[in-house]
Amino acid sequence: MQTTEILVIGGGPAGLSAALEAAxxxxxxxxxxxxxxxxxxxxxxxxxxxxxKAEYAxxxxxxxxxxxxxxxxxxxxLGKLKVFTNTTATGYYKEDGVVSYMVGEEKYGRIKPQKxxxxxxxxxxxxxxxxxxxxxxxxxxxxxxLMNVYGIVPGEKVLMIGAGNIGLIVSYQxxxxxxxxxxxxxxxxxxGGYWVHAAKIRRLGVPIYLQHTIKEALGNNVVEGAVIQxxxxxxxxxxxxxxVECDTICLAVGLTPTCELLWxxxxxxxxxxxxxxxxxRRDPMMRTSHPDIWVAGDAAGIEEASAAMVEGRxxxxxxxxxxxxxxxxxxxxxxxxxxxxLENLRAGEVGEKIRSGLSCVCCKQWG
Amino acid sequence: xxxxxxxxxxxxxxxxxxxxIREWIARGYDSLEELKRVIRVGMGPCQGRGCRDIVIREIxxxxxxxxxxxxxxxxxxxxxxxxxxxxxxxxxx
Lengths: 367, 93
Prior knowledge:
The complex is a heterodimer. Chain A is α/β, with parallel strands linked by helices. Chain A folds into two domains: 2-123 and 255-361, FAD/NAD(P)-binding domain (3-Layer(bba) Sandwich); 126-251, FAD/NAD(P)-binding domain, CATH 3.50.50. Helices cover 30% and strands 28% of the residues of chain A. In chain A, the strands form five sheets. In chain A, strands 1, 2, 3, 4, 5, 6 and 19 form a seven-stranded mixed β-sheet that branches. In chain A, strands 8-15-9-10-11 form a five-stranded parallel β-sheet. Chain A has a three-stranded antiparallel β-sheet with strand order 12-13-14, with no helix packed on it. In chain A, helix 2 (61-77) links the parallel strand 2 (29-32) and strand 3. By secondary structure, chain B is mostly helical. Chain B has one domain: BFD-like [2Fe-2S]-binding domain (Arc Repressor Mutant, subunit A, Orthogonal Bundle), CATH 1.10.10. Chain B has a two-stranded antiparallel ribbon. In chain B, a hairpin with a 4-residue loop joins strand 1 and strand 2. The longest helix of chain B is centred in the middle third of the chain and has 12 residues, at 52-63. The radius of gyration of chain B is 16 Å and the shape is elongated. The A-B interface holds A 1, 88-93, 100, 102, 105-110, 123, 125-130, 132-133, 216, 256, 260-261, 263-264, 271, 273, 277-278 and B 4-5, 7-10, 12, 18, 47, 49-51, 53-54, 67-68, 72, 74-80, 82-83, 86-87, 89-93.
C-alpha cells in the first residue's frame, strides 16, 4: 500500500493551497482530484476577484488557478508533491485510517496517510419541479464548465433560477457569449448576490422575478419553455402561473458542502444553515474532532475561493505542525498572518452570515 | 385535482417520485432510514447525493420537524460505484 505524510483530497483552491503550504514546510504531500484537470471551480471563473492584493483582487479566477499550478509544478519537480487527477477518493476507513481511491473507472488502490485534509468542495443543490429531469435543465456549474472550459454554449435562451452571485455571474457570462437570458427567477424577496452584478444585468434589460419559483419545465423531449409562479413569504404559490419561453433552464439555487467522507470518518458534524448544510466542527486551525483530519474550503462551509485558499493554508500548516515539522516561530507567524487575512475577508456586512455560521461550529480547541 | 408535482422524479437512480415519497411519509415512514428501507430512495449509484436534501425537506414539510431534526442517514464507502473486479485486481505490495 502507498503511504504519504499528508493526503489532500480535492485539488480546488482550498486543497491546492493546503498542499502548497504543507510542501513548503517540507512535508511529503499527495493530492487526489476526481476531475481531469486540477483547479476545481477556479478554472471556469472568468470574472475578477474582489478583496485585497494579498487575495488576488482584480485577477480572474482561472488566472489564479494558473499561479497555483506554477507553484505546484515547482514542488512536484522537487519531489515533495504528488498529484493524481481523474482520481476519486472512494472511501475513508476509520478502523485503519486507509483511503481507497479509483483512477477513472479502471484502477483501484489504497493509500495510508498520516494526516488528511478534506477539501472536497461543494455540490449543487437541485430543486423539485415538474420535468426537472428533461434535457435542457442544467446546474450552473455544468453551464460554466461547458462555456468557460470547453467553449460550448448550452442553448439560445436561458431561464436562470436563483439570483445569488452564481446566478448573476453566470447570467452575465451567458450574455457575453451572445445568449439571451429570458429572466432570473428568485424565491426570496431580494437579490442574494452583490448589487454590482445585479445592476449590470438589469442595465441590459433582463427581468429579475423576485418572490417567484419555477413550477414546471415545458416541452416534449427537450426544454421548450418554463412555467414560473409568484410565491408568498412562506414560499407558497400565489397568483397565476406564467409561461416563459426558453430552451435552457439553469439552476443556481445554491451549493451544499460535500461531506460524505467526513461523516464516514466519524467527524462531529453540525447542520448550519448559514454555511449551507452539514459541516464538520473544527478548531481555529481547521482541525476536526478527528485528530488526523482537517477541513478547508467549501467542504467546511460554503463561502468563496479567496477564503477557501486561506483556510487551505491554515489546514496545511496545522497538519504539518502536528508532525513536528514546523518551528514554533514559523507556526505562530504564519498562523497569525492567515487568520488576519481571513478576518479581513470576512469583515463588514457581507461577512456577517459567514461569521454567525462559524460561531456555531468553531471551538477554541479540542479538549 | 391531481397534483402534477407527484410525478416529479426525486431519486433518479431508483426512479422514486415525489408522490411515492409523500405517500410513505404519510404512512408514518417519516425518517430517511425508513424510506431507504421501504422504497430504496437514495440507495442507488449516487447514494442520495441528488435526492437526500429534497427528501429531508419533504419530511420536514409533512411532519413539521426542523431540518436538523431529520437525521441524514448513515454514510458508508464507497462514495462512487466501484466494480468488485477492480477491488479484486488491486495490486498488493
